[in-house]
Design brief:
The complex is a heterodimer of chains A (332) and B (289). Chain A is mainly α and 332 residues long. Chain A is built from 15 helices and no strands. The longest helix of chain A has 33 residues, at 98-130. The longest helix of chain B is centred in the N-terminal third of the chain and has 32 residues, at 73-104. The chains are: A mainly alpha (332), B mainly alpha (289). Chain B: It is found in: Cell membrane.
Chain lengths: 332, 289
């Protein structure tokens, strides 16, 4: 994630002026240009990071791609059978499977709903925070911090318990409000209500990041600008559209991309809340699907092929992100 | 950031409505945590009641006792703590060095590296579970202590996955240290490593704390790797896995689950409260001019 990114987007003009190499050096400027280069020093500093990332990120990515082209099942893993090159056979099998496409569509739709809900709740509450005095603000901040700090596994168990058909308080409250259909209603039984339950948990634990970041962004807008606009008779909507939204854009980009990345790879919540993918695998998302294929049914090549598909989808998101950063004049 | 406050004049009834909304939302957001702690203290009978009440008249420690005595939860807790601590310290040190390299030196491939760190952040770690599984299996054959079924198999991948983000975030903090300071240090005869550890490191420390929050949480939360890599050696399991022990086919032990969840959440909450100011200002730094 790049909270640091937006920082430099804002600072960019100053930085560009300062570090642009070339003959035009302001008087009294850089005296140590030569040593800034540092010879081998930067590589020495980078060495540990590069070793770790090369060994545990780059190499596994290569392996993932490789396995996805091999025949790799229990026979090869522990039976000592030779691995054979399959070309695109694994992908053909995957793409020919109707369930795979179901899972892809479910993953994309579910992630989209999660992202939109998280952003909507987070932004709305950030605006709300700017409109209230210290005590309600502190209460909301603390509650959000608590939700944020809750590990995915415990959050999932607690939400399942809240919605438990027999012992959970949520159904009781709904019945008390006159919705008698929720008497002993099982949320995990139906596909959509099970997804909805996971959605609630995901929004609950990820809106705080959006809220806090956007709130910090709104606070960073100079008061004078907003007051001047208000004095000139600009409406609230107009102030939002012409002043606040453009200034908040870098932050909104960061939190949106971040949410996409998080919500696209939800694993723990689905796994814990729907007991490994739901009744008759109705709540499968790509992540859980890959895990089940590889570790539950020992079809490591198919699992790897799913991993490659996920990697490619997120690569596209990353490229979009980079383009957006570039357009904002980010200096790397 | 704190002194410039957005305070467009809002009429009184609207402000009161906003404040009421904020308090209600806060209550709803906090409710799951309240219910978790409450249920952990409820006696068995009250949890199994089909008329759940939002309070308890007879708080008991039975669920906690069950968690720690029957399921050896303390062991899992220490495992989780150890893994998270090693990951936080190791990735902070490695990221500090790397961030210094990309923030304070200009060298060939610098931009390429930065883009690679950015791309690396987006890699879905879940997708790499399969190759990492085989990597850990092979490593374990030659290097005992980091193979499957050991805590090392959880530590190594998490260091790798927290690094790209940590480097990217720390870069901003390292950049913010004025260059004049570095020049002054060298003029005073400080060596490069002396500047690095005795001047730059303390100055960047707040940033390291903010970064560590993220690596701590992602490690503490890890479920997938623990589930995939710790296959038979349950004594090397971590908290998220231990929690699942209480889910039983013949009926979940909700009291145990909630007590275990409480034990697992409290350290993170404490950690969050401790670093909260740093965290918010770290995120705020993203938008400050």
């Amino acid at each position: 994630m790049s909270s640091g990114t937006a920082q430099h987007a804002r600072r960019a003009p100053a930085k560009v002026r300062r570090s642009r190499p070339g003959p035009v050096v302001p008087a009294g400027g850089r005296t140590r240009r030569g040593s800034r280069r540092g010879g081998w020093t930067p590589w020495l500093y980078l060495a540990p990071a590069l070793v770790v990332l090369g060994g545990l990120l780059v190499y596994p990515i290569y392996q993932l791609g490789l396995i996805s082209f091999l025949e790799y099942t229990q026979a090869q893993v522990s039976g000592g059978e030779p691995t054979t090159f399959q070309g695109f056979a694994n992908y053909a099998e995957l793409f020919g499977d109707g369930e795979f496409w179901n899972v892809v569509v479910a993953t994309l739709l579910f992630a989209a709903v999660c992202v939109i809900s998280t952003l909507a709740v987070g932004c709305a509450l950030a605006v709300l925070l700017t409109r209230v005095r210290a005590i309600p603000r502190l209460a909301l901040m603390l509650a959000a911090l608590g939700a944020w700090a809750t590990p995915a596994v415990t959050g999932s168990t607690v939400w399942v318990f809240l919605f438990d058909a027999d012992f959970g308080p949520v159904n009781k409250i709904l019945v008390w409000f006159g919705l008698s259909g929720f008497e002993n209603y099982s949320w995990t039984y139906d596909r959509y209500s099970a997804f909805a339950l996971v959605l609630f948990e995901v929004v609950w634990c990820s809106f705080p990041f959006v809220m806090v970041t956007v709130y910090a962004g709104i606070k960073a807008i100079p008061t004078e600008v907003l007051e001047a606009a208000a004095l000139d008779g600009a409406s609230t909507w107009r102030i939002w559209r012409t002043i606040m939204a453009p200034m908040l854009r870098p932050i909104l980009v960061v939190v949106t991309i971040q949410s996409i990345i998080w919500d696209f790879k939800v694993f723990t919540q689905i796994y814990v809340m729907t007991d490994g993918g739901g009744i008759a695998r109705q709540n499968m998302v790509l992540n859980v699907y890959a895990y089940q294929k590889a570790f539950a049914s020992s079809q490591y090549s198919l699992g790897s092929a799913i991993g490659v598909v996920m990697l490619l989808i997120l690569l596209v998101v990353t490229l979009v992100y980079l383009r957006l950063l570039r357009r904002q004049g980010e200096e790397l | 950031m704190s002194h410039s406050r957005v305070s467009l004049r809002i009429r009184r009834p609207w402000r009161l409505a906003a404040e009421a909304t904020a308090l209600i939302v806060a209550a709803v957001v906090a409710f799951p945590l309240y219910w978790m702690v409450l249920s952990a203290f409820k006696p068995e009978g009250e949890i199994q009641s089909t008329e759940p009440r939002p309070w308890t008249t007879a708080p008991s420690l039975d669920s906690f006792r069950r968690v720690f005595q029957q399921e050896d939860f303390g062991r899992y807790f220490l495992n989780s703590l150890f893994v998270a601590a090693v990951v936080v310290v190791a990735s902070a040190l490695i990221a500090f060095l790397a961030a210094t390299a990309v923030a304070r030196f200009r060298f060939r491939f610098r931009t390429t590296l930065l883009i690679m760190f950015l791309v690396a952040q987006m890699v879905p770690i879940e997708a790499l579970t399969i190759p990492l599984f085989f990597l850990m299996r092979d490593l374990g054959e030659s290097v005992p202590g980091i193979g499957l079924n050991t805590l090392g198999s959880l530590i190594l991948p998490h260091i790798a996955f927290s690094l790209p983000f940590a480097i990217w975030m720390l870069r901003g903090f390292v950049k913010a240290v004025p260059e004049a300071l570095e020049e002054a240090a060298y003029l005073d005869g400080a060596s490069r490593s002396r500047f690095l550890w005795q001047i730059l490191f303390p100055l960047v420390f707040p940033g390291l704390v903010a970064t560590s929050v993220f690596s701590f949480i992602s490690t503490w939360n890890d479920f997938l790797f623990a589930k995939s890599f710790i296959i038979s050696a349950t004594e090397n399991s971590t908290l998220p896995m231990a929690l699942l022990v209480f889910f039983k086919a013949e009926g979940n032990d909700w009291g145990g689950i909630m007590a275990a969840s409480t034990v697992m959440t409290i350290p993170v909450l404490i950690f969050f409260v401790l670093v909260q100011r740093r965290l918010v200002s770290g995120l705020g730094g993203a938008v400050k001019d």
